[in-house]
Amino acid sequence: MDVRRPARLLDVDPEPNPFTEVLLAQQKYVVSRDDDAQPGYPASTLVVGEATETVARLRAEVDGVLTVLGSGALVRSLHRAGLVDEYVLQIHPVVLRSGTRLFGEAARADLALVEATTSSTGVLLARFRVG
C-alpha cells in the first residue's frame, strides 16, 4: 500500500460506517520500503522492509491475527510466500470487463470455505482457510 496516499477506508462518510470506530482503535502495521513514510492513522506502526520478510517477522512477534486491507499487490506477495492462512473475500454481484486478478500468477492453492453470509445488498462475505 502506498502510505503517501493511504486507502481512505476510515474516512468519515455521510453514511455512518460501523467499522470506522473499530478500525481506528485497532493496532495497525503499515508495511513500506520508505522509512520516511507517515502512516496517517492513529494506532499505526510503520514497519520498514521487504513485505514478505516483514510480515513473516510480525507473524512471529504479534499475538493475534494480522489482517491486510486494500492492497492486492501485498496480498499476492504474501500468498506466493505462503504467509496467508485465511482469506475473507467480499464478492460483489457485478461482472467487470477487466481488472487485476486477485491471486495473479501464483501457484494453485486449495481453499476450504469456513463460513459465508450474504449482505442485504447481495454482497457475499466468504471466509476461506488456505490448505
Tell me about this structure.
The chain is α+β, with helices and mostly antiparallel strands. Helix content is 20%, strand content 24%. The chain has helices at residues 20-25, 51-61, 72-80, and strands at residues 28-32, 44-48, 86-91, 111-118, 124-130. Strand 4 and strand 5 (124-130) form a beta hairpin. It is globular and about 40 Å long. The model is unreliable at 1-12 (pLDDT under 50).
> How much helix, percentage-wise, in residues?
10-25%
Order of helices and strands: HEEHHEEE
**Number of distinct helices:** 3
Q: Output the radius of gyration.
A: 16 Å
Taken from the alpha-carbon principal axes, the silhouette is: globular
In terms of DSSP E residues, the strand content is: 15-25%
Task: Name the average pLDDT.
Answer: 82
Going across the biggest sheet, name each strand in turn. 3-5-4
Structural class determined from secondary elements:
alpha+beta
Number of strands: 5
Unreliable sequence segments: 1-12
Features:
disordered N terminus, 131 residues, two-stranded parallel ribbon, alpha+beta, 3 helices, 20% helix
Write the layout of secondary structure elements.
Layout: H1 20-25, E1 28-32, E2 44-48, H2 51-61, H3 72-80, E3 86-91, E4 111-118, E5 124-130
